[in-house]
Amino acid sequence: MVRLTILVDDRAGPGLKPEHGLALWIETADRRVLFDTGQGGALLENAIKLGADLAQADDIIISHGHYDHSGGLAAVLSLARRAKVSLHPSAMEPKYSVHQQTARFIGMPEESWNALRRLPGERVNWVRGPLEIAPGVWLTGPIPKSHSFEDIGGAFYLDSAGTAPDTMEDDLAMWIQTPQGPVVITGCAHAGLVNTLGHIRRLSGVDRVRAVIGGFHLSGVGGRRLDRTAGALRDLVSDILVPGHCTGEEATEYFIGLLGEKVHPGRAGQVHRLD
């Protein structure tokens, strides 16, 4: 049994707060996982309205160190007293977006950074490679960037001067094994969605995945990349595709046109049961 509730997304259902960010509440037969925490402004309120008891989280996953995925971490840790946090070490590094010599800090907020540093060592998983955090629940670790048509999706740097490119080694995804194939969860897929799925296929030993849910970071990309990405999804995804957060409206509409009823545009409040 896998039950996934979108707690935070750029779009939201009635009575819920939208926010540029992502947070997913995932329940399996014996595990409760919070995947990302949004910016922090919408998470707790939406979770209460959607019946997600964050205090019961067994695991908190930070897909990468950007503010819109890690901003709610301190608030969640104040509730989830036994949860273990899993992330790549470089998610803690300073991160900047630099455009026309103007730098904007987009890394993990100081409050989240400090809350994570205060945790005892046994409550932190530094994910440097594939890791099974619970039976059938896996994290990819760093994802090889095999396809040249995919890039990380922005002018990202580790310094405000824009001299140290951020290769986004901290970008990771999660997958949950089900009898019908893996259910894949992405934060932003900065390593590339096709790269991500290819890596999971190699690690899991399957040809197709059952579902892909999360942010795909395809806003503003060219038609060639969209076409190749959509073609790969048509071949690799058997049941459901849920593009949300940073995917972009153009890419989402493109996927709907090619894949039809498989595509369910994500929004806060949406629940997917994959039994």
Topology:
Elements lengths: L1 E7 L14 E6 L3 E4 L7 H8 L8 E3 L5 H4 L2 H7 L4 E4 L8 E4 L2 E4 L4 H9 L5 E3 L4 E4 L2 E3 L16 E2 L15 E4 L6 E4 L6 H12 L4 E7 L7 H14 E8 L4 H11 L11 E4 L1
Helix pairs in contact: 3-4, 6-7
Account of the 3D structure:
The structure is a single chain. The protein is of the alpha/beta class and 275 residues long. It has a single domain (2-274), classed as Ribonuclease Z/Hydroxyacylglutathione hydrolase-like (Metallo-beta-lactamase, Chain A). 24% of the residues lie in helices and 26% in strands. The chain has 7 helices and 16 strands. It has helices spanning 43-50, 67-70, 73-79, 110-118, 193-204, 223-236, 249-259, and strands at 2-8, 23-28, 32-35, 59-61, 84-87, 96-99, 102-105, 124-126, 131-134, 137-139, 156-157, 173-176, 183-186, 209-215, 237-244, 271-274. The strands form 3 sheets. Strands 8-5-4-3-2-1-16 form a 7-stranded mixed beta sheet. The protein has a 6-stranded mixed beta sheet with strand order 9-10-12-13-14-15, with helices on one face. Strand 3, helix 1 and strand 4 (59-61) form a beta-alpha-beta unit. Helix 3 (73-79) runs parallel beside helix 4 (110-118). The model has no long low-confidence stretch (mean pLDDT 96).
Q: What name goes with the CATH superfamily?
A: Ribonuclease Z/Hydroxyacylglutathione hydrolase-like
Write down the CATH class.
Alpha Beta
Residue stretches low in confidence (pLDDT < 50, at least 5 long) are: none
| Largest sheet: spatial strand order | 8-5-4-3-2-1-16
Q: In percent, how helical is the residue content?
A: 10-25%
Q: Fill in the CATH topology.
A: Metallo-beta-lactamase, Chain A
Terminal Cα separation, in Å?
4 Å
Supply Rg.
17 Å
Q: Provide the residue-averaged pLDDT.
A: 96
Number of domains: 1
CATH architecture: 4-Layer Sandwich
Number of strands: 16
Largest beta sheet, briefly? Answer: 7 strands, mixed
